[in-house]
Amino acid sequence: MEVEYILPRIASLVNPLRVAVLISGTGAGLNALLEHQQTSRTHSTKLILSNNNDAYGLIYGNKYDIRCKVIPLPNTSNKDLQRTMHEDLINQELINYNIELIVLNGYMRILTPSFVSKWKGRIINIHPSLLPKFPGAHAHRDVIKAKATESGCTIHLVDDGVDTGYILAQEKVSINSLDNIKSLQEKIKKVEHRLYPKVIDDISIGKYHIKS
Ligand code: GAR
Questions:
Q1: Does the Cβ of 137 fall within 6 Å of ligand 1?
Q2: How far does the centroid of ligand 1 lie from the alpha carbon of residue 126, in Å?
Q3: Confidence (pLDDT) at 3
Q4: Beta strands across the sheet bearing 101-104
Q5: Res 1: pLDDT
Q6: Does residue 66 contact residue 46 with C-beta atoms inside 8 Å?
Q7: pLDDT tens per residue, range 94-146
Q8: pTM (whole model) above 0.90
Q9: Is 127 an annotated catalytic residue?
Q10: By CB atoms within 10 Å of each CB, which of 22, 37, 38, 116 scores lowest?
Q11: Does ligand 1 have an atom closer than 6 angstroms to the CB of 189?
């Protein structure tokens, strides 16, 4: 049976939504959210998780005094078991910290349907293209290769598919003939860093009403 999106509760300044951010890399987007949350907000990041011990973004745990944990893939050759064990560890950490909204920002693993069904409506992903165009792990490369004249970012709820969930917000950037993967990535990150914290503002005040 298809699970409906169950959105987080409506939060308040005195009882902000408890957010976890999952990262794999530099965490520039994480930093933008943490800066946004420095002024009074109806959401607050309580947990930073990474699958990658070398993720630069882990420094923001110290900087903002937020619980920060690396959960590497467990050591087993059975790939299905490895994914399940890994997600069980993540799930336990999310429960321990009473997390109410999970933000995937540069988290470069695909979550299993089993994990998503437990959190559906309470996981958002930041994707660097105008979905449904250019899903997947190499959006900028694919956009440049296709000679597209515009791209952008999408903030969406996560479902069982890859970059297919309900779209909460999008913003375009234009591409010129001098753009390359790196310049496009930088342009889009600027927009993402402004847009997605506002989407979380809106989620936390109950602006979205969504069914599957
Ligand atoms: C962001 O641009 C985000 O859209 C992208 O990773 C970057 C994270 O950068 N996400 C994906 O590509 C997901 N498929 P950061 O680690 O510097 O915040």
A1: yes
A2: 7
A3: 74
A4: 67-70, 43-50, 17-23, 101-104, 123-127, 150-157, 167-174
A5: 58
A6: yes
A7: 999 999 999 999 999 999 999 999 999 999 999 999 999 999 999 999 999 99
A8: yes
A9: yes
A10: 38
A11: yes
| Whether residue 187 has its Cβ less than 6 Å from ligand 1 | no
8 Cβ closer than 6 Å to some ligand 1 atom: no
- Delineate the domains of the chain, giving CATH numbers in brackets: 17-204 (3.40.50.170)
pLDDT computed for residue 132 by the predictor: 98
Between CA 33 and CA 5 the distance in angstroms is 23
Q: Catalytic residue, from 36, 43, 86, 127: name it.
A: 127
- Strand, coil or helix: what is 23? strand
Which of 58, 105, 138, 158 most suits a substitution to test ligand 1, by most atoms within 8 Å of the C-beta? Answer: 105
- Return averaged pLDDT per consecutive 10 residues of the chain, 212 residues in all: 87 98 97 96 97 96 97 96 98 98 97 97 98 98 98 97 97 97 98 98 95 67
Supply the Cα-derived Rg of the chain in whole angstroms.
17
Q: Which atom of ligand 1 is nearest to the CA of 153?
A: 4
